[in-house]
Amino acid sequence: MTSPRATREELERRLATYVGAAAGPPEVGRDPVDGALVRQWCDALDDRNPAYLDEDAARASTHGGLVAPPAMLQAWVLPGISMSRAAADPENRQRELHALFDAQGYTGVVATNCEQAYDRYLRPGDRVTGHTVIESISGEKATGLGSGYFIDTRTTFRDQHGGQVGWMTFRVLKFKPAAPPAAARERAAPPKPRRLRPALGHDNAWWWDGLRCGELLIQRCKSCGQLRHPPRPMCGACQSTQWDTLASGGRGSVYSFVVMHHPQVPGYEYPLVVVLVDLDEGTRLISNLVGVAPGDVHIGMRVEARIEDVDPELALPLFRRETSAGG
Length: 327
Ligand SMILES: [Zn+2]
Fold this sequence. Notes:
The protein is of the alpha+beta class. The protein has helices at 4-16, 35-45, 50-53, 55-60, 83-88, 93-103, 182-188, 205-212, and strands at residues 27-28, 108-118, 129-137, 141-143, 146-158, 164-175, 217-221, 227-228, 243-247, 251-260, 272-279, 284-288, 302-311, 314-321. The strands form three sheets. Strands 1, 2, 3, 4, 5 and 6 form a six-stranded antiparallel β-sheet that branches. Strands 12-11-10-13-14 form a five-stranded antiparallel β-sheet, with helices on one face. The model has no long low-confidence stretch (mean pLDDT 91).
């Protein structure tokens, strides 16, 4: 009797006893249908229907007098702030039903559907009472939120003469909150620190775009042919602002280097080998050397660049020991 299956059968047997039961005592409207409340509703929704607001126009209309917006149906019986007290009433079967679900681990609740129908327009002075019945409880369903049960209630609204003026069905899902999927957990986890972003502008963004396209570019003066790096708008040799680029082969030798231990900036692995490389084309470039123990790095060491995505938004030319002779 303690197996999960027996527990579920026991739960469903108990659930069945709620179907058809009144959710609680009748919901008696605290005030009669009233023009002031109608005006507040219409103000809130910017509804200017004269049948709700203009006594003369309403009298001349098919209604023969002021009526209330049908969608206010439930508003006439809402208990206001005392709703929580009503729900805590030990005689309230709906509360009892929800507590039964809670005890079984179905602690989540979400409203999923609501339908209303109106039998007649309410008029000032009408008094409304709602009678809510637990109409049905589904079998256990697998949903995106977790497995659970749908509870349908039906409220019948009656006037001071006992005549039906409308009804409302309301469906909630009581569910066992599922563990969030792995992707959601990852989103919730703090992001892995990333390397510092380069400061991009008109004069250098093209060089970073080149890396994204898999090319290590070198800026070349169109006037005198001088190569330059880092990117800048004017040639230092002839002052021309006309330039184009050539793609570097990525090979070169270590001109200088430093092994960084401190300070450790998030997003980098330490010790970090920072190299200043003489590219074979003639310009120098600062980057990192990877795959080489810091003690093995030496000036003049032949290296080659490989453009790598260090994170989804940043590609860098990282240097390694040269593996074959290049041109
Ligand atoms: Zn030049």
